[in-house]
Structures are given as structure tokens and as C-alpha cells.
Hints:
Radius of gyration: 25 Å
CATH class of the largest domain: Alpha Beta
Distance between the termini: 62 Å
Largest sheet: 9 strands, mixed
Strand content: 25-35%
CATH architecture of the largest domain: 3-Layer(aba) Sandwich
Helix content: 25-40%
Structural class: alpha+beta
Number of strands: 21
Shape: elongated
Number of domains: 2
CATH topology of the largest domain: Rossmann fold
Amino acid sequence: SKSAPKAEFGANLEDFLCRKWFHDLIRAIEWEQRLCSAAKDVCDYGATLVARDIVPRLPEECLQCARDHAFGQRKRVDANVTEAEVVFVLGCDLRSRDGQRLVASLRRMANALKREFAGRGVRTHFRSVVAIGDGVYRRFWPKSESELDLRRVPFETRNLSHSLDFLFVTSSPERPLSRHVILVECAVGCAEDALLDFGSARTHLLNQNLFLHVFTENAFKMRSKKARHVIGVDAERAFVSASGAADDVTARALRQSVSASRDLCHVLALETNGTVFRTKSLNSKNSRALIARRVADNHVTNACFDCDCVSARDHMTAAVECRLCAERAATVGLAAKGTPSGGHDVVQEWTEEDDRDDDEETIDDGDDDEAVDE
């Protein structure tokens, strides 16, 4: 309990809670005195009022994250991060034949990620949701998970408020871990939205231990036929299929010949140490292993987190939300595109010259990766 309320009213906590929150609502109830005899009773009744939308939230005095973590308190934790969460966000119709094939490929991708993280001593948790046309996230996989939530709000009832809403499906974890959102675009990509601008989304990624990886149906633009084996890119390197494998130096040089599309999510991923891959690469065992290695490379074992005890989305409970103590450095600074990073040139994705260039080709890598699944 807190001393300030008692000093203010010269009464106990129970009396303070009743006066502050519920007195006008329950004064006509015969059992008011019994209700206010214990703080727990007041808080339990208050939860009922919140659930019925009679009051907006429980008072802070009812909220506690742990015995040693009071509401509103921040704790700094230097953690050995041994857990990772991977969330697949699907913008696809999974009822079609192609959709079912995609589901099978994603399960294989999850297995590749699990093996890669396990080899690094990291335990992996998986979630998957589908953003469907009626503006609602629906739980998809794993089907056995009973609680797939967004800050305690089930995905089944989570309305899309903006086109980048998926970024918050793993927002502010209750314990230090790395989080990896894998967005699978099947048709329409991300667009500018008045409710959440690019800068806000970018800051959110960098403030969280959160990374974005995008799978797209779109082909890359290339300035060289040497890029025909490229299956994906990050800010500094191009990733190639097994049949066109390249060393790190070649991959960095090849990146200068490849550009992703102008899709907002592609830019967001590349500027925050994420990646963009062709969806077709999910069909290849070798490509999945390569992707898993690149995703796992973002995991930082030792990190500093600020963990706050705050009100959960249901307004009836408290929750711990952890974020990095200091914002991560962007892969590509907004004011420094094209400047050296780590001794290598970082690609500026689009220039006016690109817009005037009518000779660019798009990559068709075919199915030349020898380990394609049937």
C-alpha cells in the first residue's frame, strides 16, 4: 500500500479507494460498508466495473506487478538474453492451395529457426497471426496456444488501427528477449498511414529489441546480371541461392547492384537491421537455413533493459513492459544514406537516377536452388 493516500484522507487505504473511485457508484448499495472493509474487495469490485465499462480503469493502488515491483516503478536489468520470440504475420488467404503450401513452408521455416537459435543456446517461442480483410487479426498457428495476445487483448478481437499495426504484436515483452517479426506479404504491401508515420514505426523498432523481416512476392531491381541468384537483401549485403553462393566480400559488392521495392515495410526493415527476402525462397531448404542464420544474427545475448510496471490493456491488471535502455543504432541513418557503415558502403535504395532509368531488369531466379522441397 501507499502512504500518500492515507495522509491525504487521514484514513486507511480501503476508505481512500472507496472515496476516490467507487463511492458515488456504490453508496446506495446496502453492503457498501462490507465492500470497503478490505482493499482486495474494493479492487475485485472495481474490476467488475471496468469490465462493464462503468469506470475506465482500476486505481493504481490495486495494481502490482510483483512483490518487489510496484506500479509505476522502473527496474533496470542487465540481462543474459536466452529467449527469442518469432511472430509470423501473414497477409495471405490461407484457404487456397497456394496458401496451404505457404503454411507448410512456414512450418519448415519455423523448424529451421528453432534449430539455428538452439545451436546458439537460445530458446525460441513461435506465434502466428493472419491480418484478414475485415480488419481483424485472427489467431492462426500454433493452434495449441490458448493465449495469443496483444498486451492481453486477444488477436481474434484485435482490430487493425493502421497499416503498421502488426509491429505491436510483440510490443513490450514482460521479460528480456529478442523479438523477430516475419511479415509475409502476399499482395498489397504497407502504405503510409496518417495514424502511424514512418518515423514513429522506425523509432518503435529501434527502442525495442525487435527486428522486422519481410517476405515479398515482388522482384528486386538489379543493375547487373550477376545478381540473378539474389533471394534477399539487408542494408549491406545481398543473399544468394545455393547455386550462386558468394563470400561476404562478394555479397557486399553485389548489394550495390540490387534494390528492393519502395514498399514502406521494405524500407523500414532495411533501415533497422532487418531483411527483405523473396517469398519463393521459403520453398528451398538451403535458403531457409540461410534465412534462419541471418535472423538469428540479430540476437544479442547481453543487453540492458528498462522494465516498467504499467497498466495492461485490459485496465484491470498490471503488466511489466521491457525495452532497451538505449535505442539501437539504425542500419541506415535518415540523414546519412549512402555513407560508410562498418567500413562498407550502405546502399541508398532509390535515387532520382533510378527513377529515370528505364533499363533496369528484374530478377527471375527461377527454381535453380537444388534443395527445393516438393
